[in-house]
Amino acid sequence: MRTAQQPQHTSILASLRSVIPRRADITVEETLRIAELQANKLLEQHGITRGATPTEIITELPKIAIAYTSTLVAGASYWDSVRHIWVIQLCRSDSWRRRRFTLAHEYKHIIDHGRSADLYRGTEKVSTATHAERAADYFAGCLLIPRRLLKRVWGEGIQRTDELAHLFHVSEQAIGVRLRQTGLIDDVTRHVRMEYPAPNRERTAFAPLTVEEFFR
């Protein structure tokens, strides 16, 4: 559900950006914690406590415009200095579930604007640009499949990836990643075997995800 009065876009951005420490030595682990804190803060500000995250928590913000295009691989975001708004471009041919994920991903880039150099320095194996992209993916996963809600419905008995994907309005691939990130993998393997009968396939697709693996 959403609160009756929506907070203003500037205050939302300010509150989400305030989570970022005012220093330049932010670690890789911290960038993930920051992304999840920001996602949780956005959910709390809109009173989201159950079910699929409504895209309106982003699309209905002032100073945000959504543009659909057929020329993009996935999406993009930029500041329109003429209209003084942020524009998030989504690929028209993508599935609605992928567009939901892309929308959240691109909003993370807007949140990070002006602080990307402090947040993302990459690793020996990953460039700064890839670091930023993967952090945006992590934010999108946290926003659309919140850890607390995922664990709650898991405890209520909804444990098949297809059922979880339907509940959260995301792809099964996104559910698989979040199951790994939230540590539910030890319990999910028996269900994964039903969907992926090939030997050891579930270990490859759903093995516990470490920070090092995330940025490999």
Describe this structure in words.
- The protein is mainly alpha-helical.
- The protein has two domains: 1-144, Arc Repressor Mutant, subunit A (Orthogonal Bundle); 147-216, no CATH class.
- It has twelve helices and three strands; from the N terminus they run αααβββααααααααα.
- Strand 2 and strand 3 form a beta hairpin.
- Helix 8 (161-168) crosses helix 9.
- Residues 1-7 and 187-209 have low confidence and may be disordered.
Key traits:
mainly alpha; 216 residues; 2 domains; three-stranded mixed β-sheet; Arc Repressor Mutant, subunit A; 9% strand; 12 helices; globular; single chain
Describe this structure in a few short sentences.
The protein is mainly α. It has twelve helices and three strands, in the order αααβββααααααααα.
How do the helices and strands line up, and which of them pair or pack?
Elements: H1 9-17, H2 28-45, H3 56-59, E1 64-69, E2 75-80, E3 85-91, H4 96-112, H5 116-119, H6 128-144, H7 147-155, H8 161-168, H9 172-181, H10 185-195, H11 201-206, H12 211-214
Parallel strand pairs: 1-3
Antiparallel strand pairs: 2-3
